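Researcher: I'd like a candidate sequence for this fold, 290 residues long. If you have to choose between options at a position, lean toward the conservative one.
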């Protein structure tokens, strides 16, 4: 990892994530947006070598696989299930609007865009127009919303017969957000690659402000590498419609257990991750009520 430049290369999203957090702690400059101290690296460019392993479990991060699962499934299915999100992570409730929805939901904003991006790649393998946009000028010019997208866009490119992905983010909290962003976005890359029938290539994460808040400094300093890395399954399909259907079925199975037997092995992993998180929160709430 070169500390003299803002290009950061990490092995994966597990042990490499530990290295990335340490890098921000060590080299980030102090800023205080909204009066809260942070360490920040501007215009960071993160290259992830192994995109199959991007959920930092077992490194002292206490990452919740259910959060990564629900974010990935909503993105791929083009949906938003606020009730399930909040059941998995109660902390997300503060970001809902008065109608109970998330203003910046990635799934609903990108629904229909992946099909177009894939078609462009199929028509011209050298295209630079396969873009999926999260930031919406009209929607996000509205002031006072609780949940604006941190991600601006994805750009998919085929080079050397592999699918490369560049992600552009205006802001990324390396502690709270990056762990799950790496996971859900690489799941999208793997899903698109499966539709195109090619292997995934590079993943590059561009961030205007890569930061960590002072509340998390001490927790971050306790991260450690692990030798127990278990690759997580991912959703595939022969068409984007299949990917969407698979991801939507997984989400629907959370509310309707009768659908669980219909899930394949990969879908079951995501469903079980979400159900486990929901059950843990329910048990915790019961203890708090006593």
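Model: Candidate sequence:
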């Amino acid at each position: 990892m070169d500390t003299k430049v803002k290009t950061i290369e990490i092995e994966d999203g597990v042990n490499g994530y530990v290295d990335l957090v340490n890098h921000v702690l060590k080299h980030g400059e102090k800023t205080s947006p909204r009066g809260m101290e942070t360490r920040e690296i501007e215009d960071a460019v993160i290259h992830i070598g192994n995109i199959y392993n991007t959920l930092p479990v077992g490194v002292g991060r206490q990452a919740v696989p259910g959060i990564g699962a629900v974010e990935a499934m909503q993105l791929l299915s083009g949906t938003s299930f606020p009730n399930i999100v909040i059941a998995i992570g109660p902390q997300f409730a503060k970001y809902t609007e008065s109608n109970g929805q998330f203003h910046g939901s990635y799934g609903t904003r990108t629904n229909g865009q992946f099909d177009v991006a894939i078609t462009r790649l199929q028509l011209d393998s050298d295209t630079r127009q396969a873009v999926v946009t999260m930031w919406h000028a009209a929607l996000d010019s509205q002031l006072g919303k609780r949940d604006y997208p941190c991600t601006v866009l994805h750009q998919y490119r085929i080079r050397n017969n592999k699918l490369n992905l560049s992600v552009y983010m205006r802001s990324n909290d390396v502690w709270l957000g990056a762990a799950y962003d790496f996971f859900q976005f690489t799941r999208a890359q793997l899903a698109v690659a499966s539709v195109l029938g090619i292997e995934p290539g590079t993943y590059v994460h561009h961030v205007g402000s890569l930061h960590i808040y002072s509340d998390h400094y001490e927790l971050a300093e306790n991260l450690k590498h692990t030798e127990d890395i278990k690759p997580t399954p991912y959703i595939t399909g022969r068409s984007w419609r299949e990917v969407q259907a698979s991801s939507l079925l997984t989400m629907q199975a959370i509310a309707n257990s009768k659908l669980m037997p219909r899930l394949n092995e990969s879908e079951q992993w995501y469903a079980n991750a979400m159900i486990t998180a929901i059950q843990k929160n329910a048990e915790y709430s019961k203890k708090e009520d006593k």
